[in-house]
Every structure is written in C-alpha cells, then in structure tokens.
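Saturday, quiet lab. Running sequence design on the structure tokens for the scaffold JK sent over.
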C-alpha cells in the first residue's frame, strides 16, 4: 500500500543517523566554544594588535604632570592622622620598609615615624632660634648615658584605646628625628597657659540635665599615703563623680598598684602629666621656678615618654596631656598635638597647687559655671583640697550640676 519511491534506508536507521549528526555538531560547537574561552586572551591580543599599532603612532605626547600641592604643617602622615605628610619625605628607605606592616595596620588612623635622630638635628632647631649655648648643651646631652636612653623601648600595642597613635612601634629617638626635620627653624612666639590648642573649657551641651563641669586632678609626685588622697577618691566614688586624673611617670612608678586600681575604675580617666613634671618648651623656659624642657628631644621624652609609661602600666593609650605647671610655648603645643594627644588646660584652679585652705578651695570650686574645667590635686592629702572639694562639689550636685570626664565631650 505504499505510494511513491521507496527510501534506501529503513525509517529507524534514518532517525538514528540524524541524531548522531546532531550530537556530533553539538560536540563540535562545544569544543569550539571551549577553545575560544581558553584562548580568549590570545584572540583579543591578535584582533586588537592593528588598532594598538595605529593608536600608538598617532598618540599625542602625555601632558606635563601637575605640580604637587604644598602640604601645610598638619597632623599625621596620612590625611586623617596627626603628623604632616611632608614628614614622610625624610623617611629612610630601610626603616620605611621595616615599618610598612605597622603603617598598613594603622592606615585608617595615625601612622608612624622614620629614622633615628642625630645630635645635630635637635641642636639645629635650637640654633635657629638664636640659642647657641642651648644648641651646644643639646649636643652634649645627646652623649648622655642615662639608663632611660639605654633602655628605651617602642610603645606597646595600643590595647583598649579608642584613639589612634601616630608613632606606634617607633623609638623616642626616631620620633624626635622626624619632628626635628619638620620643626627646624621654628621659634616659639607665645608662652603661657592659654593659647590655641589648649582646651580650657568643655563644650556646652544644651541637652545635658544641668550645667556641666569637668573635674581634673593632678598627681605630680610622691609615694604612698603621703602622695595619694584616698579620702578624696573615696568621696568621688561615693557621689559617683567622674574625673580625669593626670599622672606623672614619677607618681606612676611610685604608686603602681594604686594607678592600676584607678585605671580599672570606669569613673576615672587617666591622663598624662609629664615624665618629670616640667613645663613644656623647646628653650628651657621656666614657670613658677620650674625649668621647662630644654629641647625637642627633652620635650618628646617628657610627653611621649610619660604616655608610654602610663600605657605600659594600664594597658591603655592616654588621650589627654597636661604639663607640669600647665605652661607651654606654641611650638610645644604643636608637637604635643603631633604626638596624637589633646592638651588639657583649665578655667578654674581650685586649690592653686594644693596651697589653699579648705575654705578658699570651696569658694573657688563652688563658683564653677557651665563648661568649666576644674583643676585640683590628689597627691596632697594633708592640704585643704579634699575638704574644700567635698563641700563645693556637694553644693554643685545639689544645684543640679553634671560632672564628666574630658573625653566624654
């Protein structure tokens, strides 16, 4: 019953032949696609070669590079840190490679310094200010074999600090060298307790429950009960009055256990008060009969040395610094800021160096206004400071005053 011409192959054979051809074609297409994928770079290189050749022959000469903008004396080696970018230009290549890991770790905050100082670098800073005698004394001091110079160690890890640190892992000599390059030729023009860069009042918070005051207590020197007003600290704890405590290296070394207990108490914030409780200067200027730091080297030791002593003792990098006597020259203020520290001044000296009677301390402290920073002492338990502050602070609390640490603002 078939009509037309008979096929050469039976129907099942024709079907299977078509299927085999389809499969073979698919395999071939797959192989081609795979080959193109594996050799795509070579294909692109081959196809674009003529275009690259002609584009190179007609390419215009590159424009001259734009001049690098001058970097003002600022804070930080990167845009967010406290030492100027220009300081990085003086870095020794060897030390730069050694410190690259540290720089990477702190690239989002503050970075670090470079090479070791030479006696001439510090002396040149002083000589440029017209103090030849001071310059020569600085050169002589550089040969000093004091134990502190021999046992100098880098700062420990910045554990527990919310603030960056511009010179992590660098020795004090390396820091001094970089700062000396930066401040060469700078001559102090201002001397005193109040100038730009020194915090004398805290910001007024309109949302605070009442007038806000920051209580600060200095621990200058001494050892044991004779140098620690435990009764004053107990009163602050009883009344839950926070305070910022400024501690010298002398006091810290003589009272290590007390310092640890205070640092562990969230009611208190530890600040730096100097390695040897000196006014901060680069020329040795005096305040209240106390000779200030005499050079950049001396200043770095006084400030950064103290900060590192406290960090080793408490495990935290301090945020605030107050010099012995609270006097500075303007170059010292800039250097301290480059070290990543804020400078705490004051608006009311409540006990005037722990020299006032309790009645006078009460009178001065109770006059505090919104935003004031009170300065008193916690290392003279036999003075009138404790009783005067207890009466004054109680009065202020009754008036609705709020007390804060400096870093709360």
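Result came back. Writing it out in full:
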């Amino acid at each position: 019953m078939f009509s037309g011409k008979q096929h050469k192959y039976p129907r099942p054979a024709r079907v299977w032949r078509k299927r085999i051809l389809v499969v073979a074609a698919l395999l071939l297409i797959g192989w081609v696609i795979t080959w193109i994928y594996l050799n795509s770079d070579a294909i692109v290189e081959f196809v674009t070669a003529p275009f690259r050749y002609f584009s190179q022959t007609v390419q215009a000469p590159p424009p001259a590079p734009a001049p690098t903008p001058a970097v003002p004396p600022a804070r930080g080696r990167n845009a967010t840190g406290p030492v100027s970018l220009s300081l990085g230009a003086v870095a020794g290549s060897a030390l730069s490679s050694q410190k690259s890991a540290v720089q990477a770790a702190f690239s989002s905050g503050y970075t670090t310094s470079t090479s070791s100082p030479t006696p001439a670098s510090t002396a040149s800073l002083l000589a440029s200010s017209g103090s030849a005698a001071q310059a020569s004394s600085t050169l002589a001091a550089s040969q000093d074999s004091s134990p502190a110079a021999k046992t100098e160690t880098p700062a420990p890890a910045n554990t527990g600090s919310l603030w960056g640190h511009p010179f992590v892992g660098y020795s004090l000599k390396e820091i001094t060298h970089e700062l000396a390059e930066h401040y060469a030729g700078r001559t102090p023009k201002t001397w005193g307790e109040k100038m730009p860069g020194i915090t004398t009042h805290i910001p007024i918070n309109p949302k605070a429950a009442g007038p806000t005051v920051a209580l600060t207590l200095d621990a200058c020197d001494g050892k044991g009960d004779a140098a620690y007003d435990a009764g004053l600290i107990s009163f602050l704890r009883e009344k839950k009055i926070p305070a910022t405590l400024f501690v010298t290296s002398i006091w810290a070394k003589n009272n290590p256990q007390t310092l640890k207990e205070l640092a562990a108490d969230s009611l208190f914030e530890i600040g730096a008060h100097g390695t040897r409780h000196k006014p901060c200067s680069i020329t040795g200027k005096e305040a209240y009969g106390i000779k200030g730091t005499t050079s950049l080297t001396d200043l770095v030791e006084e400030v950064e040395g103290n900060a590192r002593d406290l960090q080793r003792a408490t495990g935290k990098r301090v945020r605030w610094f107050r010099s012995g006597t609270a006097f500075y020259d303007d170059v010292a203020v800039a250097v301290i800021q480059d070290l990543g520290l804020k400078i705490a001044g004051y608006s009311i000296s409540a006990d005037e160096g722990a020299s006032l009677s309790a009645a006078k301390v009460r009178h001065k402290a109770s006059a505090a206004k919104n935003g004031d920073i009170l300065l008193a002492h916690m290392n003279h338990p036999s003075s009138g400071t404790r009783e005067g502050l207890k009466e004054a602070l109680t009065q202020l609390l009754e008036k609705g005053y709020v007390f804060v640490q400096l870093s709360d603002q």
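Notes for JK: Residues 69-164 have pLDDT under 50 and may be disordered. The chain has 15 helices and 13 strands. Ask whether to fix the surface positions before the next round.
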